Amino acid sequence: MTAVALATRSGATQALSRTQVTMRSILPAEAAAYWETGEPQGKAGGYAIQGRGAVFIEHIDGSYSGVMGLPLYETAQLLQTLQHNGEGR
Asked: Please, is 68 exposed, middle or buried when counting C-beta atoms within 10 Å of its C-beta (0-12, 13-18, 19+)?
C-alpha cells in the first residue's frame, strides 16, 4: 500500500493505492544470484520491480508505479481534483 497526500491552504486530500504482487517460486540459487547483483539492497520488499527483479513477478494486481514508489494515477487524480476546485494554480 502506498498513500499520497496533497495539501493546500484550504485543507488536505489523500488517496491510497493498493497493489498485490505475486512472485513465482524462486530457487535459493536464484535468490543468492539476485542478491549478489546489489539491486535488492535497500529496496522495500527486497526487490526492484523495474529492474532485474521483474523476472520473478508472476502477476501484478494494482499500480505498477505504486510498487516503484509513487502511484502516478492516484496522484494525477488528486491534482486534477484540486485543479477543478480552483486550487491547482
From this structure: middle
- 3-state SS track over the chain: CEEEEEEECCEEEEEEECCEEEECCCCHHHHHHHHHCCCCCCCHHHCCCCCHHHHHEEEEECCHHHHHCCCHHHHHHHHHHHHHCCCCC
d(CA 51, CA 56): 10
- This prediction has a pTM of 0.75
pLDDT digits (tens, 9 = 90+) for 10-55: 888 999 999 999 999 999 999 999 999 999 998 878 888 999 999 9
pLDDT at residue number 69: 87
Q: Which residue has the cell 498513500?
A: 3
Neighbouring CB atoms inside 10 A of 75's CB total: 18
